[in-house]
Amino acid sequence: MNKINILIAIVTLSFQTLAQQDAMFTHYAFNTISVNPAYAGNRGCASATALHRSQWVGFDGAPMTQTLALNTPLMQDRLGAGISFQNDKIGPLNTFTADIDLAYKLKINAKNKIAFGVKGGASFFSKNLNALVAHESGDNSISNSTRNEHYFNVGAGLLYTNDLFYIGASVPRFLEDNLENSLGGNLAAKVMQHYYFTAGTAFDINKQITLRPSTFVKASLGAPIQLDLTTMAVFNKKFEVGAMWRSTDALGILVGYTFQDYLRIGYSFDWSYGNETFQTNFGSHELMLRYDLFLKKGTDIISPRYF
Q1: How far apart (Å, rounded) are the C-alpha atoms in residues 273 and 225?
Q2: Among 10, 40, 102, 288, which residue has the fewest nearby CB atoms (within 10 Å)?
Q3: Does the pLDDT at position 17 exceed 50?
Q4: Residue partners of 184: CB distance under 8 A and separation at least 6
């Protein structure tokens, strides 16, 4: 390992009042349930989504995240339920999270509904600084430093949908937890509350092309507000291509293809223009796979089911 990994350990484990950030995704519009439990069952069919993100490829100790989410409608679409898993790794640090999501859907009329969701789960945090190689011997901050911790979480969210657009707000984590540093006793990091806002729409340009803009806003105490803007063009409800802009951080492109209306594969690349490390890495890459079960034949896929 090089100095970068040691820097990660020092910054993440030694500073008091450090706010630990949730993982980011360029495919946020396809992975909404990871931050908003009200999305559970919203596609009208059982759905499974798997996603892998490799951030700053070629940069030693760079973040790497995998997610798996399954959700389905229940009781004639009055309820939604889901379960999700996330594995997030950065350098010698690893966090595995498992959550259960429940949503209640209130139909305002035939085209409008609002969903209320709750989330509960647990996270398991581990660190192994023994994997790092110090450039100077006798560094007590990384010698014999391993620790395993766990903490619990509850969260909630709202999601409003109709034939034209969707809008959602959520706080997936109400409980704040402290993580101790390698030597014990002092606060190393604090798992903070995050506040999310999502919105999107889909409208036809002509019979072959549908435009699908969306936005994602993330806010947390001690960190700048992050705004994502994405626009996708969908051709014949099959092939998708689009662009993404993330405030003060990155530009990206996304492509995707839907097979037989129930299997979608997607890829994205983003380049962190706001990060000095952009000169020493090969960008960030995501692969996404979504499979819809029991999708009724002849069902039109409209917003928000593009997501």
Answers
A1: 17
A2: 10
A3: no
A4: none
Report how far Cα 54 is from the mean position of its chain's Cα atoms: 13
Cα distance between residue 119 and residue 157, in whole Å: 8
CA gap 69, 84 in Å, rounded: 4
Instruction: List strands edge to edge, sheet with 187-191.
Output: 19-20, 187-191, 177-180
Q: Which residues contact 121 (CB under 8 A, 6 or more apart)?
A: 97, 98, 99, 100, 152, 153
pLDDT in tens, 53-78: 998 887 777 889 999 999 999 998 89
Nearest to 213 by CA among 238, 237, 233, 227: 233
270 Cβ partners below 8 Å, 6+ apart? Answer: 26, 244, 246, 250, 251, 252, 253, 283, 284
Element of type H or E holding 7: helix 3-14
Closest CA to 38 of 79, 98, 84, 99: 79
Q: What is the DSSP string of 140-201?
A: TTTTT-EEEEEEEEEEEEEEEE-SSEEEEEEES----EEEE-TTSSSEEEEE--EEEEEEEE
Residue 119 near residue 156, CB atoms below 8 Å: yes
Residue that is written with structure tokens 């450090």 in the block = 18
pLDDT in tens, 86-110: 999 988 889 999 999 999 999 998 8
pTM given for the model: 0.82
